[in-house]
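WARN no homologs supplied; continuing
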Amino acid sequence: MHFLLKACCLVVVLAATHGAAAELKLGEPAGPVTLTELSGEAIEMKNYAERPATAVLILSARSEATLGATAELNRLNQKYRQRGVLIVGVCPIADESADELRTFAQRRGLIIPLYRDPKGEVTARFGAKFTPEVFLLDRRGALVYHGGFQDDKSRQAYEAALASVLLKQPVKSPTQTVAGTPIDKPGEQREIADPYGVISFSSELVFEKIPQAAAYHCSTICEAANGDLLCLWYGGTYESAHDQALYLSRRKPGERSWSTPRIILQDPKAPPGNGVIFRDAGDKLTIVWGRMEGTRPMGRGQGWDRCRLFARSSTDHGETWSQDRPLFEETLWCVPRNPPITLNSGALLLPVEGLQKEVEGSYFLTRPTPDAAWQKTSFTGGGSQPAVIQRKDNSLLSLMRHSLWITQITSRDDGKTWTEATPTKLKNPDSGITMTRLKNGHLVLVYNDSQTSRTPLSIVRSTDEGKTWEKPQQLESNPGEYSYPCVIQTADEKIHITYTFRRWAIKHVELNEAWLYQFERSD
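OK structure emitted
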């Protein structure tokens, strides 16, 4: 008797292994099944006893029905894999390459072992006709359920069968109607969108120490027409010191280090304060900066209410600069913080912090063409140091520095007039903010997500033009000051941010948009 049983088992093993067995029937053990890994190596699946259930899923990357089922497959796999259930994917299409299947699995988030069946032996053994099609085996390796996986009804039937097996109960409806993509009509290879992309993030100090300067603040960054990154900031013994100077550093494409900072402007009688560097539509670089014209001696942090705007330009990517000239003949006490934006009309709009009748607020300056003079268009209270973007409907959104909450205003006439300032739900300790519109229309804002401290420094994204904002992500959270950020997007779609790093240095961060929202992937 024992001899006969062993002989029968041997027949099953040989048949399953060599593809000569008849189609698997309900209640019949599958026996060892030869599977081909994507690397080409053959293995034998026979470890059924190690788990309560094994599901063999026939699938194809070229099957529309399979693609439509992957989300639910992932959900059920996550739900039951902790209970020991194994799903084994078998791909019966002979010309589906390993790379095609690997890409399919990675981009659809499949975290199941995936095998090829190029000779159709496994498919024939189970009698599969469609993709997706599922065969459920119990701990003995016996077939206890056969059905489709193409719609909610078939998936619910599979889950019910799986629940019965886990409870060690008979499956009530062991066979179900199967539909999907016929294996003999698999369809053409298709491009599968990658929902994960690549996460990119790096950071470094632009410098560690500059001789004859101790404190640094208020950086801005831009991309020159040749691809160089230029970073501008002021530094000196302390904020408002007579030895305060504007420094410039450069990072060339493909490099990770910045050039030695060089002083491009210094005047002990009227030192430079905040400056912004930007490139216009004609690829000319411009620096607009505030000259501190208050009387001296002057205390630390004083004199910002007596800054007069000057500008200089460069046509050789910032290697040399023109003479400084005032933006206005009349005195306009204000200071820049964020670079201008180019409006859809082609005009530049530059937001600056300023005073009007001793009221602190914001001016918006415009330059209709590259050769035209700057014009003062409007003043608004309710916030300072504006950051501006233009929406799809041509309206402008400006967010402003303010105690406790960032405030916002909007304009429908290119910044000539603005709505009354209203508080947003974004915290602010009365510290500088920065915002830019990405090429895809999304917005990113960098700010101190606190009402009392210049830490943490956070970045947040909006996908609806600033109507709502996602959860902020922290760039810095340690003790210290991380403030006055500037953000741009370069031609390669990378996001670049510079900011004050504890007043010891200026820090640069480079990331891509995926870093802002891709937090998990199938693993």
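The helical segments are 2-18, 64-81, 98-107, 121-126, 152-166.
OK
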